[in-house]
Amino acid sequence: MQSPARILVVDDHEDIRAPLAAFLGRYGLEVSTAVDGRQMHALLAREHFDLVLLDVMLPGEDGLSLCRHVHEHLGIPVILLTAMADPADRIAGLELGADDYVVKPFDPRELVARIRGIFRRMKLSQRQSRVLPEQISRYAFGNWLLDLARRELRGNDGQIVELSATEFRLLRTFVENANTVLSREKLLDLMNRGDAPVFDRSVDSQVSRLRKKLEDDARHPRLLRTAWGDGYLFSASVEAVPS
After folding, report:
1. Strand, helix or coil at 44?
2. What is the pTM for the complete model shown?
3. Which segments of 47-199 does DSSP mark as H helices, in order?
4. 96 versus 205: which is more confidently predicted?
5. Please, what are the domains in the chain?
C-alpha cells in the first residue's frame, strides 16, 4: 500500500499553520510543521518530505532564501505562501526554484489542487525521463496528438489541424513544459532555439490563434490558460510517445 505524501508546512503564524495542517490531513496527506527556518532545516535533516509549503515572510532567514536552499540542495518541490500579490515577487520566487506561488488569503481546496498538480507533474516527468528526447516522435494530450516529424496536430477524429511554423513551435514548447507557468520571456527563450526568431509582440497573438485551434471555447480556455501577471500555463496531462 502506497504511503501518504509527506508535507512540511513552514509558517510562523499558529492561526495559519495548525488549521492548514489539519485541513491537509483530511485529504490523506501526512503533515509536519515548523515555525521558522531553523526548525525547517532540523526537520529536513532527519526526515523525508515530498513537498514544502513555505511562508515568504518568516522571522530570521526569509522564505525566498530557504526556497533557494531547498531547490539547490534537496530538490524537493516548494510552494511559496505569501501576502504579497505583486507579480514581481511571484516571479522572483519562481526564479529561485519555487514550483508554485499562492497568495494569502487562499482557498485551502485550491492549495490541495496545486499540491496534487505538482505530484502529477512529477510522476509524468519520471515516466518521460525513461524516454530519450530524440526518441520522442509524438505528444498525446487531451483529444489531440502532436506529430513532431510531420509537424501536424491531429484530433482523435483523425482531422488534421494546420499549424504555421510559429504555432507549431509554440505548441511544442507548451507540451514539453506542460503544467508550468511560462513567462513571455521564457517562451521566447525556448522558442528561439530554431532559426526563425519570434518577437515579443507576437506571443499574445500567436497564443490567441493557437487557442482558436485547440479549444472548444477560446474565450474560456481549458488547455492554454493565462496566468495573470506571469504568462501562460498549458494545463494538460501530456504523454510522450516514442518512435
Report:
1. helix
2. 0.54
3. 63-69, 87-95, 108-128, 165-176, 184-191
4. 205
5. 6-128 (3.40.50.2300), 133-242 (1.10.10.10)
